[in-house]
Specification:
By secondary structure, the chain is of the alpha/beta class. The chain is about 35% helix and about 20% strand.
Length: about 350
């Protein structure tokens, strides 16, 4: 821990320490997905349709709606007269049937699938192409898992969520097995599931490269560093955000007395926070920095707050948008929104 930044009178009775994690918040895949929607709105005008939430964050979704994005669940919801308007597929990825459906409807679509999710799709397809049954380690029903399963023929994928699932899994047929993982899982829990699979099926074949994304690993590592000795660990994120929920679990396992997932400062149980508490604070990969700042300010209004930074690594990854959108100029306000600071 370093970079102490006291706020208020250090001798005041209501002191409090916040351990602020870094990296936190937006990752390169989320940055790219939000950029695609904003750039499409600038280039083509409103409306721009978005199939499902572009990322799992209500603040981001509402900000894009205010700019002219229209969120839909399925492509048939796009009115006939708007078929030439862009439709964006979310960062979580989609089954192959979705772009096929868009083409059948003569829709103009932009695929905002995170490149790291696309890598998992390719890993799964390679397993299947080589005759292996695919074991997908992930959470059933999550959009990323649905998208990955949708790259392969029906019946060629088995989902495993836990070590117990791995122990119960039956080999389908006599062929080889290969596994891939959802990108946003707990690094430690996934390692346990992989060990259980390898114990049950010693011949199971791993993907050519790690499936858990760098941002998931980095955010979990920072939380592990900050969690020991904290009275409460706050994770900014949405209830349907897999990577955010995993951060809550990681904080508890790493030594936090208590950990909560919050979407805004209003979700914090302020009346339960005692003076002299140590608070951990991080944010999932789809949570904007402005909410972190809102929460820090909420503490400063109530306590003499000291900020400690728990930084494990600096992230420099950048995933460029598709070529057709790279010439679009953005305003300062657009940039602030994309940076999560507006």
């Amino acid at each position: 821990m370093s970079d102490h930044a006291p706020n208020g009178d250090a001798s005041a009775p209501h002191q409090l320490t916040i351990r602020l994690c870094g990296p936190r918040g937006f990752c390169a895949g989320v940055d790219r997905a939000i950029q695609i929607v904003v750039l499409a709105l600038k280039k083509y005008g409103a409306p721009v349709y978005v199939r499902h939430e572009i990322v799992h964050n209500r603040y981001v979704v509402e900000g894009l709606q205010a700019r002219g994005a229209v969120f839909i669940e399925e492509l048939h919801e796009i009115p006939t007269e708007h078929r030439q308007c862009p439709v964006v597929f979310s960062a979580h990825g989609v089954p192959k049937s979705v772009p096929a459906d868009a083409e059948a409807r003569n829709l103009f679509y932009l695929d905002a699938t995170c490149p790291l999710v696309s890598k998992v799709h390719k890993q799964a397809m390679r397993h299947q192409r080589l005759g292996r049954h695919v074991v997908l380690i992930g959470h059933a029903g999550h959009p990323e898992v649905i998208g990955t399963m949708g790259q392969l023929p029906e019946g060629s994928v088995s989902i495993v969520e836990t070590e117990e699932d791995a122990a119960r899994l039956q080999r389908p047929g006599e062929g080889e097995l290969g596994f891939v993982t959802q990108t946003t899982l707990s690094v430690d829990d996934t390692a346990g599931v992989i060990r259980a699979l390898q114990e049950r099926f010693p011949d199971i074949i791993a993907p050519a490269a790690e499936s858990i994304c760098y941002a998931t690993t980095n955010r979990q590592d920072a939380v592990k560093q900050a969690a020991p000795g904290t009275d409460l660990f706050l994770i900014v994120g949405a209830p349907n955000s897999s990577n955010s929920k995993r951060l809550v679990e990681v904080a508890l396992k790493a030594g936090a007395d208590r950990s909560l997932l919050v979407q805004r400062a209003d979700d914090i149980p302020w009346h339960e926070i005692a003076a002299n508490a140590v608070i951990g604070l991080s944010a999932g990969a789809s949570a904007p920095e402005i909410i972190v700042e809102e929460i820090v300010e909420g503490f400063r209004e109530r306590f003499a707050t000291q900020l400690e930074l728990a930084i494990t690594v600096e992230e420099t990854e950048n995933f460029p948008v598709m070529r057709d959108l790279r010439d679009v100029e953005l305003t300062n306000a657009d940039m602030a929104f994309l940076n999560g600071s507006a």
